[in-house]
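Each field is set out underneath.
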Amino acid sequence: MRPLTAAALVALLYVLHQDVWFWRDARPLVLGFIPIGLFYHAAFTAACSIVMWLLVKRAWPAHLE
């Protein structure tokens, strides 16, 4: 993975973390019972985990191991 791609992924996650669109109302409910803000943060956490896994697998320098 190129360093520019890795930096773009991290920057994208940084921008997505600044969620100001689900603060005023808990509606709509996802799956009928999960408030949208909670679901957004759960999905964001899963996305962060996937990006971190990609960064460790593809962007970590092999000579440091």
Q: What stands out?
A: The chain has one domain: 3-64. The chain has two helices and two strands. The first strand starts at residue 29 and ends at 30. Strands lie at 29-30, 34-35.
